[in-house]
Amino acid sequence: MQNWKLQTLSLSLPNSNFSQVKTIETDLRNSIPTLARITDLKTSLLYGQFIY
Amino acid sequence: MQPWLVEPRTKSPRSATENFFIWCSQLVDPDYTKKVAELRLQKRLSKDIKRTSLAFKRMVHLKEYNIYWDDNPHYHPELYRFFLGPTLDLWKDHLVKLTIKVPPVFLNSLARVLLPKLESLCFTFSTGNLPSSDIENAHDGFIVFVNNTKPTLRSLSFTSTKASENLDMSLIFRRLGVFPNLRVISISIPYDGGHLSNPINFVKFLLRNGALLRELNLFTNLLSLRKEAKHHDIEWIPHILDAIRPPLPRLRRLSVALRPIRHLLDAVIKFLAVHPEVTSLKLLDRCLTAQELSSILAADSRLAQNLGLLHIKVDTLVPDLLVSIARMCPELETLQLECQRLRVYRPGVMTRNADGTGFVVGTFSFLFLSAVFAYSFIAVRLVCSPSATLRQPYYAKLEIADTFA
Asked: Between chains, do A2 and B357 touch, taking CB under 8 Å as contact?
């Protein structure tokens, strides 16, 4: 995972609130260093825009 | 542009003289008030068209135009006539992308329209309960129009609405010619295949235009209202994929609905085996298991290595899934996941391996407990309130996903 080149991950995560999404985001960013964007598949908004 | 409904206020008589005049007029012509109302409506429509026309004339460099009908049977033909022929003539020298959904009766007016710069055409068939012969007649002019765009057209997208009871797009594809610059072909029809009685007509159209084709999209939408089972080919997607021979040499992007849901995946696997250069793969509609995903990506050893974008739907988001995708698709830049639920392991357990692979899942345990609590709460609510609305589905909007693909 550390060597993965993934830059954008779009997730559709039903039944999850922003806090949960934030937790997942942290995990993903720790695991995939190249990850630049995590977006909501349904709205195409960056999760960061929700949270901060 | 969505043509609107004009509903001018009914003018009531205000004086005894006016009342008397109307009464006398109705003696002569019983439909007098209706005619006056119609005249008033026409006056208002003319005014609206004049204003819109003035605004349009200022948009001299317009490149994209979308005209949309909401399937409402009550509409003003005057507006649609104006928003098709004259308006398209106005912008013909610059128009690059055109999206059309209009009542079928206006389609023949497109026959004389020439758009020498048009590169992208998105058309929605919405024929309601028109009989087959009327549908064919109504689309004569449209087919002429589409064939006239062949020197420049690069992207062609057809969608049908489920309310089109007697639509058969096989007849449309049979009458479309060769488009030497076509790069993208998309169709979206009801998943039961009710609007494509003969998928081979579509395949022949594909092969006629397959030399430069870079993107193929086979989408599904809601179940059709067509009643005659003879027109249904429920396996239309596997049949299309099986029939595409020889392979499309330039194909790089594939979006395909994995229908029928419980059908074997052989067709898509075989198709990908002969198209290993695909760099963008979207597998829609069906939740894949890790094993099914591995089978698809293993169709050819080059496929997984080449992928830059992958869109899949899975039942459960588990860290192992991401680890598995990372191993199989090292060059992947964009991953789009539709998930039904999360799965977690024991609290505090990390799955990261010594070599750096793996995934942090400790926090997933907290989410799992939260989800269990939430489900329990919802279950109690549902039991206590039978009319409670079930949670909405969470299908991804593909067109939105495309914006960041």
From this structure: yes
